[in-house]
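Fold sample X.
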Amino acid sequence: MKKNTLNKFLFWIFLFSSAVSCTTIKPLEGGEKIKVLHEKRLVDSILSHEINFEWLKTKGDVTIKLNDQDEYTASIYTRIRKDSLLWLNITYYKKKICTALIGDDSIQLVIKPQKSYFSGTFDELEDLLNLTLSYNLIQDLMIGGSFIHNVNNKYISKVENNQYHLFSHSKRKTNRINTHKTKKEMEHIYQCWVDPYKFNCNRINISFPEKEGEIDIKYDNWIDIEGKYLPLTIDVFFKVSKQEYSFTFDYKSNMTFDEPMKFPFKINKQYELLEILLTE
């Protein structure tokens, strides 16, 4: 009887220790602590801290680099009606270079110097780019979103380098997917690195194994808007069809929220259809 009682006591001690280990507090260098969260609670915290608005207007600069070509910087103006419409206008020394109007399932693009345009669906754009894009993915990129709405995975998380690391596949499984050793095809592999106090994503990486594509995004210089956060600096790198592209968005802090606005867009009848977006 005494032995059975001791075994039960040790068993409950083990369970208690296991429960405590699931909420381990890991210290930062400055003495602050990060609480290890369950994946669902971490995802809910990320989503609840994302900025909420109906209308948003921004302006700033964008630095663009294509492959090994020289980079150049232009001005960018954006207007967003959340979950509905996104308008971009890029100018270089006050001359219009490119205007885009992006809807839920359509994208229109005018490139003024080339007198060309593209008008089609995201499926048609995917055939040209060999990369899966969507309105929500582009919108998230522009406002510091987590992309969690777009990937719908079961996640794994851990504390790494004083931040949360949330990912859809283990390192071992990711290696198997990338080396084509799995039976089931994976559309994407998702991971992000999250601030443990503000719950905004410092970095997001999404790879597309079957298309050999990748998007890597880094958010920085966050501003606090009524307890929600928006990045002023967004570094974007994406690779597709052996081509590499990088963009850096530097927004100005004087943004306009929740004021209805227009989205001016027109395709000149003399412009020609842009059929190829990527060089071979």
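Fold sample Y, listed below.
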Amino acid sequence: MDAGSIPAASTKKSSDKLVLMITYLINLKRAKDRLESVSEYFKNADIEFNLLEAVDGKQLSLPLSSFNETKYKLMHGKKPNLGEIGCYLSHLKALELFIKTDEHHALICEDDIEFLPNLRKIIDNALSSKINFDLLRLSGGSDKKRERGSPIKLKRIEGEYHLALNFTFKPGTGCYVINKKGARAILKKLHKISLPIDHALDRDWLTGLKSLTIFPSPVTLKESLHVQNSYIKATKEFKISPFLRLWTVIPYRIFNESLRTLYKSFFLLRLILNTKKLK
């Protein structure tokens, strides 16, 4: 099924739509329960979406020209997971469709999320905040009490929600806003798979992007779908031996987090200086 073929039921007028933004919902064809669940949230939030059929890991087989198995094992410390590879390819598929449109931004969502009806307002306020970003992370995990990423608040945009800058790794790609610059950079720099999509997307210094987050996360993973009925099943059985992880994964992550701290620190400094200039 092609993206754009099934809009969510909506009562909003065409003049009241998200300005110059297209929404993609990534959904496995066999995951009809997820589509039914998430469609209600989109309807309540008054957001129309374009359905994008996800790449099904069950239909993939190794080797794949787009997948570097050696790097994946050394950097991620796990054996190949075809579900994770399918998820990665699905996000690239959404970005490829987006750059062919006239829209300035895309809202890209996975199908195991839940959110409140004020999501549109949060996004609108973030885009009009005068703080520039290429990628805006909107989703957290299934535990609403635990916020990952060590976010530093930058500006309140709606009620309790703030634009924030993550200083540590934030897992998950359940929902995010991205502009054309961000989409092109990811397609150019991250088209070869060596990590799961959330680990790859979180390396701003590699893509040269400015990424922010909303704190607390306005979008969360629905526990009954993400935890109890996962299609990826990234379980412990995929992990390589602890000895190999010690000598490959740990050094990589130390190096990775060092680069993150440097990049984010310079980004925060630029934001502070730009704010002072505006004053």
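Sample Y note: Residues 115 and 268 are 28 Å apart (CA to CA).
Also: The chain has nine helices and ten strands.
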